[in-house]
Structures are given as structure tokens and as C-alpha cells.
Amino acid sequence: MYERILVPLDGSQNAEQALKEAIELSKKFAAKLFIACIVDEQHYMAYGYGMAAPIDFYDDLKQRSQRILKDAETVAKEAGVQTTTILADGIPKKAIALELPKKYAIDLIVMGKSGVDALSRIMLGSTTSYVVRHSTTKVLVVNDADDDQE
């Protein structure tokens, strides 16, 4: 049913739950798992740097994303799932909804319902809601385990 599953990660609890779900689906369907982190260009604007963001700021975002990818790849491979990691620069909601599914022929996106950056959600809108509205690929939205108890 699914051959290529994309799970975007941002370090949040919801993303961690999405990774667990994506791994289970990948095992069930013998699908290849694509784990992505997008270094968010919007942070440059949100913090007033424009396109002249300090190199340290960019490097910090990139290093954090690389750690997230490495940890997720380890978990997926230990579960026996064929995995590809993607580190990209861009606007996360557009990359997840449109660019990555097209580039990697993704047939399912599995993502958490909210991420780590509340300020960006308020200012720019939820990445998840954007992906649900704009993606032509099927999207599975996963709640954080704590959300189930509310």
C-alpha cells in the first residue's frame, strides 16, 4: 500500500511519536522511510536577520538538525527499516507538503500535529495544517502520547 514514507522531524514530542508510527508503518508495508529535517529559513526573518543571518545561528540550526536525523536514523535502523535521511534548507511547510514528496516520490507523510516552535506557529501558521491543506500526498497526523489523555 505504501512504498515511500516521509516523516519530518523538529525535535518535538509529537515528531518523536510520528517517527514511531512511521517506523511501524514502514515495517508493516516493507516501505522505505525518509526522515527529514528542514533548516528553517523563516527563523532568519523571525529573529530579524533577513538573509544576513549570522553564520553561528545557521550552524547551530544545522547541527541540531543533524543530531535529530542521526538519532532518528539509529532508531529506524535498529527496527530493521530501510532509511534515507534528508537535511534541507527551506521553508518547512512548503518542503514537507510539496518539494520533498515530489523529489522522492513519497506516497505518505507521517507527522506530528504540532512542533517545538510556538512563536512560529502563532506568526506563520501551523506547519501541519499547511501540509494537510496543500499536500497532494496522503498525510497521517499523529498526536503526542500526552494528547491522548486530555
TrEMBL record:
Oxidoreductase in keyword set: no
Location in or out of the cell: Cytoplasm
InterPro entries, per the entry: Rossmann-like_a/b/a_fold, Universal_stress_UspA, UspA
Pfam families: Usp
Cited SUPFAM superfamilies: Adenine nucleotide alpha hydrolases-like
Domain UspA: 1-142
Family, per entry: Belongs to the universal stress protein A family.
Name the UniProt record assigns to this protein: Universal stress protein
